[in-house]
Design a protein that fits this description.
Order of helices and strands: HHHHHHHHH
Strand content: under 5%
Helix content: 55-70%
Distance between the termini: 57 Å
Number of helices: 9
Number of strands: 0
Largest sheet: none
Radius of gyration: 18 Å
């Protein structure tokens, strides 16, 4: 077995930049590995925890349930309430999208329920968001539009109205 090499604490900023780059290049395994290297040196580094969380969520399409479980552990390590709510919403939304990919006509009730759950997390994040941060609103709107466009028959008229969504385009 190989012993992993440890990065120096002085290179953490450069490692963050490299992880960002790999994730943008759609190479989540590399971003995950770098995030783990950072966390080996700085276990509470919130930026590395978020990058690791996102990198694992990027891999949902390959291996959903084990990766969902891995993200749940990471979510509990986030110290900021907004981040915990926002990223729980994001993880749940991505879970819903994988389910939707596997059931493109949206007949699986779990798809709709996961989008609704994500929206609830985004609303919690919205309540504690920093000034001028509208990420949670934008994500909520994305979920609402997916429900409106692809899952309206599953959700039913009354559920859409509960969300403040009109069935008419």
């Amino acid at each position: 077995m190989y012993s992993l090499k440890t990065i120096s604490s002085g290179t953490i900023d450069a490692a963050h930049a490299r992880a960002d780059r790999y994730r943008l290049l759609n190479e989540p395994h590399e971003a995950e590995s770098i995030s783990l290297d950072i966390l080996a040196v700085a276990p509470d580094d919130q930026r590395a925890l978020v990058m690791l969380l996102l990198s694992i969520a990027d891999q949902f399409k390959d291996d959903l349930m084990p990766n969902v479980k891995r993200t749940q552990v990471l979510l509990d390590r986030l110290t900021d309430e907004y981040d915990r709510c926002y990223y729980r919403g994001l993880v749940t939304e991505r879970w819903a999208k994988v389910l939707l990919r596997d059931d493109p006509v949206g007949r699986n009730r779990m798809v709709y329920d996961k989008f609704k759950e994500a929206m609830c997390w985004y609303e919690k994040a919205e309540a504690v968001r920093p000034p001028d941060n509208e990420e949670s609103l934008l994500r909520w709107n994305t979920c609402a539009r997916i429900i409106q466009a692809r899952l309206a028959s599953m959700s039913g008229e009354h559920h859409l109205e509960d969300l403040g969504i009109s069935k008419k385009p």
